[in-house]
Amino acid sequence: MSETFTIKIDGKDCTALQGETVLQVARREGIEIPTLCDDKRLDPAGACRACLVEIDGQRRLQPSCAWKAADGQDVKTHKASERVQRHQDVLVSLYMADHKLDCEGLPIETGNGNDLRAWAKDCSTLKLDPVNAPRVARPGDKNPYIEFDPELCVLCARCTRYCDEVEAVNAIALTGRGSETTIGTAGMRGLLDTSCELCGGCIDTCPTGALIEKKAAKTLPEEVEKVRTTCNYCGVGCQMDLNIKDDEIVRVTSPDPGTTVNDGNLCIKGRFAYDFVHHKDRFTEPMIRGEDGQLHPTTWEKAIAFAAEGMKKVAQRHGPEALGFVSSSRCTGEENYLMQKVARAAFKTGNIHQCSAT
């Protein structure tokens, strides 16, 4: 077992594990420390400076996302340190001066939320003049899924780090220098002309909604109901949340990292290919072709009996090897197991296959 020890956070004794950061310990203990650049799937970067805390014996404030917990450490967050709270008030104000604001003077809320907006509500912000240094987006990017609004970007680098550390494709990066720094690509080309896999992981990890799904309805997080389900495109079993409004899916989002088998990651199909759910040609009930050659609605019991009777006739006439069973990688492992059981045990044939070959 990992060695444990005790540190103090805001006067509370907290048990820490060897190798944990101060932020990890605080979160487990229910102590809130704001952050913009932290993602459990990524190596700590300390880029946004939102999670700075006061550590006894340290002259400067330190990033809790990267600072390792040590035995006997005494840590103060903004709840217990006026110095940390003053730092956060000024930092949020600087971010807001370089960020698109709504009519209430708060960071604008997007369909994917905005962590900066939630943070600003808890701070005594200063009224700073807006920064006149607009960042550029990728001109004429015709990819069908991902939209980038540079005025919402706070350069936390979560999207570029995700593209590097998780997807390992490096399609996007921090480009430019100084006030012209932005999220760009090689030669500022569109994503379709780069190594981008259009997985949408950059959308998922973006804390301010600067990266958002193009085809998603312009709905706010509080306007949708989230329904946890399993992606049906392959046999991995990725978990995802369907965002429902007026009985229709308006977008797909990922569960929190570390809570599901896919760790909050999805591929292009799982995140964007949900149009078939509401397609006008989709079958929504079992159908049997009648003597008139047309498909007619029926019950599941009748449809299954009809299919079984047809397969029995083929086996009686031509033998079991005349039958072949094809399952789908969209099925669960349990469903594919039952399909091969039907083929081998019920119809005595080994002609069974499914496209992921698991």
Biggest beta sheet summary: 5 strands, mixed
For the CA atoms, what is the radius of gyration? Answer: 27 Å
- Tally of separate helices: 8
CATH class of the domain at 4-120: Alpha Beta
> What is the quaternary state of this protein?
single chain
> What's the average pLDDT?
92
Into which percent range does the helicity of residues fall?
10-25%
- Largest sheet, order of strands side by side? 2-1-5-3-4
Q: Within the CATH hierarchy, at the fold level, what is the topology of the domain at 4-120?
A: Ubiquitin-like (UB roll)
Percentage of residues in DSSP E strands: 15-25%
Q: Quick one: how many beta strands? A: 16
Low-pLDDT residue intervals, each spanning 5 or more residues: none
Morphology: elongated
Distance between the termini: 35 Å
Structural class: alpha+beta
- List SSEs in N-to-C order: EEHEEEHHEHEEHEEEEHEEHEHE
CATH architecture label of the domain at 4-120: Roll
